[in-house]
Design goal:
180 residues, 3-stranded antiparallel beta sheet, alpha+beta
Length: 180
């Protein structure tokens, strides 16, 4: 499902809200699985009317749980990037990254596997030898828009990032953008 990105400007902060609504069809499938689970577990221990009630409740809970809107918020201030919501492998629901530690922001594609348990696509803050997901689920275009808004709101951060590169000091330029 597509992620909707909302940008809210404050006096000395920027709030980026990414929200995703899941499909009703998947919700119905989740409800069926939830109801079937309760029927399989309880058919020997509970009378039929009670079992039907438990199955219906399990199905409704499964449907509502699956179709609810998932929202992640990134609040950018002068001192930190604070993410609230589900974002990848960190299940606490809150992550804070110091602005001074951020070398640059970039979009990273999602991947999953044994070595990187859950690496969602989205906006990442590169911090030296590692990176931290600060806004999961956004597309490359939305990540570029978010980076532009952050650079516009906090030009000092943009200056800090422009001096750094993923290649470190080991890059040769042709000087085509240097004034004559």
């Amino acid at each position: 499902m597509a992620v909707e990105l909302e940008i809210i400007h404050g006096r000395d902060w920027l709030l980026l809200k990414a929200s995703r609504k899941r499909s009703a069809l998947k919700g119905i499938l989740s409800a069926a699985v939830g109801a079937a689970f309760f029927v399989l577990i309880g058919y020997r221990y509970v009378d039929l009317p009670v079992l039907l009630l438990i199955a219906v409740l399990g199905g409704v809970i499964g449907f509502l749980q699956f179709t609810r809107e998932k929202v992640v918020q990134l609040r950018v201030g002068r001192l930190d990037f604070e993410t609230i919501g589900y974002f990848g492998d960190d299940r606490r629901g809150k992550r804070s990254v110091s602005s001074a530690d951020v070398q640059w922001l970039e979009y990273q594609e999602g991947s999953a596997g044994i070595e990187n348990a859950d690496h969602p696509e989205g906006l990442y803050a590169v911090l030296g030898r590692r990176s931290a997901c600060v806004l999961p689920g956004v597309s490359p275009q939305q990540a570029d828009m978010a980076i532009s808004e952050i650079e516009r709101k906090f030009p000092d951060m943009a200056k800090q990032w422009s001096g750094r590169s993923s290649f470190g000091g080991h890059i040769t330029t042709l000087g085509l953008t240097d004034p004559q």
